[in-house]
Amino acid sequence: MTGKSVYLTIGAAFLLCSHTYAQEQAITEAPESFRKNAILATVGTVGLMGAYNLHYERMLLSSKKSSLQGLWAKAGIGGWGVWSSGGPYQSLMLGTMTGKKNSHFELNFGLARMVDESAYDNARDINEYLGEPQPPKSNYIHIRAIGTAGYRFQKPASRFLFRCGAGYPETLYLGIGTAF
Predict the structure, then answer these.
(1) Where are the transmembrane segments (predicted)?
(2) What's this model's pTM, rounded to 2 decimal places?
(3) So what's the architecture of 37-179 in CATH?
């Protein structure tokens, strides 16, 4: 046997014995999910109307297979103002978001207990000046529908989140938060 034939025989045996993995499927990693809790601070204004709030949100349902990422419950406190009236408010909302990567469309809706503190103070001062009985504060507490629609930047399993959009009572808003 010549040197060339020995090398060819060894090379052919090596090629026949080696494994080819070209047709095997790659192991897919499970997509990371979002953290279950978050705290968000939001500020919004348009002209003489605006609001600020602090929300806690908790993931109720999650979906890794569809573009709808899940369902969140949100509870918040804040303040609102319009021209010469305003006051504190408390809110409860449900929210969802779409998108698979870092950028999402966020949609929230719910109810808020809004106190018109300014109007109550004015009515109380006028009644005191006129010597009339004080108005009940319950006349200045309203339950209102609230909601937001906007953009949310949040990477799966990341702590930082940023949001902006339009809604009531925040009008045009910007917000930041942390997930845990």
Answers:
(1) 38-56
(2) 0.74
(3) Beta Barrel (2.40)
